[in-house]
Write a structure and sequence with these properties.
This protein has helices spanning 41-47, 110-120, 125-143, 149-158; strands at 8-12, 17-21, 30-34, 38-40, 52-54, 59-62, 74-75, 81-86, 89-94, 103-106. By secondary structure, it is of the alpha+beta class. The chain has two domains: 5-120, SET domain (Beta-clip-like), CATH 2.170.270; 125-158, no CATH class. The chain starts with 7 loop residues before the first strand and ends in an 11-residue tail after the last helix. The structure holds zinc ion. Zinc ion is lined by residues 77, 122, 124, 126-127.
Length: 169
Amino acid sequence: MQRSKTDFAVRRTRTGLGLFATRIIPRGKRIIEYTGPQISNEEAESRRGRYFFGVNKKWSIDGSPRTNTARYINHSCKPNAEPIISGSRIWIWSRKNIKPGDEITYDYGKEYFEGVIKPKGCRCEKCAAERKELRAKRLRRAVRGEKPSSLSDSNLRARGGAVASAPES
Ligand SMILES: [Zn+2]
């Protein structure tokens, strides 16, 4: 039986577009296939698109066509889905129960994360929450009159004090 397309929909996120569940997707279900023309890894390497998905040592799938709805799935460091390669095809499976309205995400993998996501700062929900928590901590410290150490360093420098004499160093 073909799964109904209404299990998910492309919607706006804080930062662009994403794929969202429109009804309950139970854990361990095949959600959607990551589709597109098969190209050699060599060619994928030379074209450097963001939608290439390696299938094996030889082949990648070029997921850039708009008909590939799975291309709208964003990266998360705490994902609720995962890609599983079977043969030369890639399917996205749920790894948790996904509620209607939840964004469907998977982990893009270490290489993509280190090379593309990390330099710009990860925008997944987990990392955004961590940044928010960090800001709140800094704010609480500032309210109590404590200075974050990086700030006191630059204050020392601004006053002409030798950084080498700062207690931290
Ligand atoms: Zn993240």
